[in-house]
Amino acid sequence: MSEATVLPAGAALPVAPLSPLRLLRTVLRNPMEAIPAATLTEPIVQQGVFSYRRVFVMAPELVGQVLTAEADAFVKAEAMQRALKPALGEAILTADGERWRWQRRAAAPIFRHERILGFLPEMLTAAGRTRDRWLALPAGQPVDLGHEMMRTTFDIIVDTMLSGRGDIDVDRVEQGITDYLGATSWAIALAMLHAPAWTPHPGRRRAERARDYLRDELLRLATARRGADPAGHGPEGEERRDLISLLLQAQDPDTGQAMDDQDVADNLLTFITAGHETTALALAWSFYLLALHPAVEARVLAEIAAVTGGGPLRPDHVPALTYVRQVIQEAMRLYPPAPIVARTAQRDVRLGDLPVRAGTPVYIPVYSVHRHRTLWEEPDRFDPDRFRPELAKARHRYAFLPFGAGPRICIGASFATLEAVAILATLLPALRLSLAGNTAPGLQMRITLRPSPGLLMLPARRAA
Ligand code: HEM
Question: What is the predicted pLDDT for the residue at 188?
Fold first, then answer.
């Protein structure tokens, strides 16, 4: 056992406040390094002066105030909007107010519990393809786990949200998303310095080409589907009611307004982007932690064997894998795939004793909340038993927020959890994954929290 290899939270975070120029350089290199170390111990931290002032909120009751009780006093943070809106438009993740509300209502039916359970066959098939690919590798060949998991979750999001896939070029779309997200740090840093959105920066042309390709592809798909088969009929003539058909047929109950093709395309790209990399990272970090904690891995394998009786994993087994789910929750506590939830105050508010002026960025550093010294015992230790139902219930509901909270909570939270359990429980009994090399990966933030420089692992077939 090597618990010490779990990265201690304080390792990356700066103790002294950063000047605006250092802040720019730090955000460009790695926004994680711009989160002050005091966020691990304090309930709320304010930094910077005048228009560079920003507030970090960690105390669960204050987090609840920002995300739920007074959610209407905040909008999505301007820096994130500048990074994402050029590609995602005014879709569900990036819109605010009424425009957000009706898009959320339109997409909600696809995330109902029974509907999500119905996606399990696609999830297990995609996981099985990854398992077979790894089993066919020559002995000793490492895999880049982040990339492998992204490939798996990308297939699942496209298969479930766009049944039949349309005819999109999956590899090019995935590459386009990576190219686009790669340049978002510049947009975020420039917004923090109040530089205009048109300011040139390295990687801009590449990101713009990626954005144009993605928007054109998805618009083409939305237009073709509206013309041919808006309800999305399957091979037997049945209505598939996939995400694209729900969006094409959605009508705002108050205004009667429908989505045009561009709105549909923006939402499709949003779901593909928001829905695959995050889940892939939760899985990559879970496999990493299991490789470091063989006793936990043995318990996971024992649970899977008990639930499946040693046979193949079936859809009805997946919801019963409660310890596997706890492992994924604990991995998301230590390495939250979305490490910061960001807002801007729209009006003057008071957070505890701190008056916050309209226009101030308010960040919830989920990474720090999840490792906060006053909220968790031995916060840097990997211990999935923290998520035993009775312990989870006793905890403050805003102390664990991998999916955010309040009205803007991740719409795909249950989908992602079920998917991660299904993938982990397909791969782990067939293959033992060990670390290739013995250095712990660092943390790199590009909207999501990635292992840096990557996570190379060696898959080896388990003895039958
Ligand atoms: C482990 C995987 C995932 C994590 C950690 C995650 C995390 C998050 C977080 C933190 C938010 C809230 C952002 C905010 O309040 O500013 C969010 C929103 C969202 N997520 Fe996820 N997500 C995951 C998987 C998914 C999946 C699988 C889908 C789609 C199938 C999805 C679709 C969305 C959408 C559409 C929103 C915007 C919701 C709204 O604003 O109403 N996510 N996600």
Answer: 85
Please give the distance, rounded to the nearest whole angstrom, from the Cα atom of residue 83 to the centre of ligand 1.
Answer: 16
Phi, psi of 313 (to 5 degrees): -75, 125
DSSP of 31-100: GGGGS-GGGGT-SEEEESSGGG-EEEE-SHHHHHIIIIITGGGEEE-HHHHHHHHHHHTTSTTT--HHHH
Domains of the chain: 3-461 (1.10.630.10)
Q: How many Å lie between the centroid of ligand 1 and the Cα of residue 61?
A: 22
pLDDT for 165 equals 64
Kindly give, in sequence order, each residue whose CB lies less than 8 Å from that of residue 127, ignoring residues fewer than 6 positions away: 152, 422, 423, 426, 427
Enumerate the β-bridge partners of residue 351: 354
Tell me 448's DSSP state. Answer: E
User: What three-state secondary structure class fits 112?
Assistant: coil
Helix (H, G, I), strand (E, B) or coil at 187: helix
Q: Which atom of ligand 1 is nearest to the CA of 80?
A: 16
Contact 185, 28 (CB under 8 A): yes
pLDDT over 90 at 444, yes or no: no
Residues with CB under 6 A from ligand 1: 76, 92-93, 104, 157, 270-271, 274-275, 278-279, 282, 337-338, 341, 402-404, 408, 410-412, 415-416
Helix 145-161 and helix 120-135, axial crossing angle in degrees, nearest 10: 150
Lowest mean pLDDT among 15-24, 29-38, 173-182, 233-242: 233-242
pLDDT attached to residue 16: 64
